[in-house]
């Protein structure tokens, strides 16, 4: 046998995670959130759940699996928060914000000339960078926006990211890639410029709520635009199909659905037409 370092086996770890433990965790995650946890996610799940086992002073994965089998247990929410992947950034996939500015907003100005009311939903908003980018784009383009009733609903399954979004305070590295004029306009830095607070004008547009997309939705009104970017990538096709059809129901006629760069509606729903790269309009 070679002396080269062998990959660390799961069973050499602080808490062994059996196949049965992993499949129990994956099953509960899928049932409750739609998130698929394939074999490649095993290592990631190990480290995230081991952290929870340590926090709860439990002895092993068996005990943890027993706890999360009860979705009323106080730990269940922490479990859900620990399986989500929240990668995001301000003006991520910037072509969507360019399209919003060049095409969608001028169209919304026309169709809402009378009621002056625009509704946007950022579904799977993570820590808030997406809804704030939408707010900044709306405010920039609806000049004299005080005459317009602009609202953004920002929702996510993970209660921690929703709280971060609601606070609207970001570490300096979150804004370091943005143009300095934009940072100056929309953020206030603290004394040592380590934290940046989003301007109240943008904050005021957004309502942050926790919402599991698989549950029933409490919203009574329809939206002009739904952003659901880099969320369905974690779901299987049947879950994606159901969700896209529900989005069609929740959009005004001709409303816009914007999805992530590696996502597609192809073969999943005929209720939208493609009008640009990962940008769709509701047909029916
Ligand atoms: C990778 S982030 C995408 C954030 C943002 N939309 C973007 O593109 O930058 C995916 C988000 O989807 C959320 N998510 C996953 N499953 C969800 C579900 N069933 N209901 C609501 N949000 C969910 C996660 O918590 C996570 O914050």
What does this protein structure show overall?
Mean pLDDT is 94; it is low at 1-8. 40% of the residues lie in helices and 19% in strands. It folds into 2 domains: 10-83, Orthogonal Bundle (Chemotaxis Receptor Methyltransferase Cher, domain 1); 95-282, 3-Layer(aba) Sandwich (Rossmann fold). A hairpin with a 2-residue loop joins strand 9 (272-276) and strand 10. The protein is an alpha/beta fold and 284 residues long. The protein is globular. The chain has a 7-stranded mixed beta sheet. The chain has helices spanning 19-33, 42-55, 61-68, 74-83, 95-111, 129-141, 159-167, 172-175, 180-186, 200-203, 237-250, and strands spanning 117-123, 149-156, 169-171, 187-189, 195-198, 206-210, 223-228, 251-259, 272-276, 279-282. The structure holds S-adenosylmethionine. S-adenosylmethionine binds next to loops. S-adenosylmethionine (SAM) is lined by residues 33-35, 84-88, 92, 124-126, 130, 156-158, 161, 212-214, 229-231, 234, 260.
